[in-house]
Amino acid sequence: MRRRIFLAAVIAAAIALIYAGADASSAGKGSGQNGGREFPLPEVPSSLTKPAERADYLLTRFWDGIDFSGKDSCVRDTAFMEQSFVDFLSVMPHASSDSVRDMAVGNMLSRAASDSLALDLTGWLAETYLNSTDSPMYSEGTYIMFLDRLAFSDNIDEAMHERYLAQLRDIDCNRPGVVAADFTYTDIEGRSSTLLELAAAHDSTLLVFYDPDCHDCHALIDSLNRDEALCGAVGAGTMAVMALYPYDDTDLWRSTAGELPAGWIVAQSTSAIEDEGMYYLPRTPRTYLLDRSGRILRIRE
């Protein structure tokens, strides 16, 4: 998917509302042309002076000026809704927290639920921009916010209900805060162990899913290998880094294992990780930072 995402007038106005400051007389309200139609942005109170506060207010009320009841044809206009949705996502990084972003998603979907066609279009846009790995706005965390509601909505048909539920089950496994699913691996020396055994022997463990044919994987590995703090922790034995090849081309894995940094554990999964749905691997590289108990601290998607 290669979509031309551009900075529409509406998002330029939105960003101006966030950063204009309370002393700007025109900073309270804005609008922009979107597909030839003016998109009504909410009025931001002048009492809100911090950019994050203003972004929170704008994001959670972004869709208030749009009538989703079916009376306004714009909610069924793919071009208008697509650019408006991109503008909505573009404000999200400026919000103060995930809870605010989640509230904003909930507000949008609760309004869109009044028109089944608008809700279907919203779901398609969320999947297109947030769940397509070649989208510059790809974000599993944000897509989960949509899935948490779409998968249990009474306003979608059964086929889409099952689709969203399946996606939620896949994406929501092994998220930050839970103990990582354990699996057996074999390193390049032929030794076998498990992920949680490795984690228990170190203060922290970085699990790197990679593919030798993946350019982005090589870029990430090179970057990690230049990280002095990480290399120091590996050298001191307080941190383990395991580069895990999760596929079954053993010849490819063995022939390229020597390219990985010294001190790393170079391993291949023996547990059919992807096929059994233990980990969600829409693309590589993908990293998981674990503590000594195996709890996931952070994911790099």
From TrEMBL:
Top-rank taxon: Bacteria
Chain positions covered by the region annotation Disordered: 25-47
Gene3D superfamilies xrefs: Glutaredoxin (3.40.30.10)
Pfam families noted in UniProt: DUF5106 (PF17127)
Record's signal peptide: 1-24
All copies of domain DUF5106, residue ranges: 33-171
UniProt entry keywords in alphabetical sequence: Signal
Name the UniProt record assigns to this protein: DUF5106 domain-containing protein
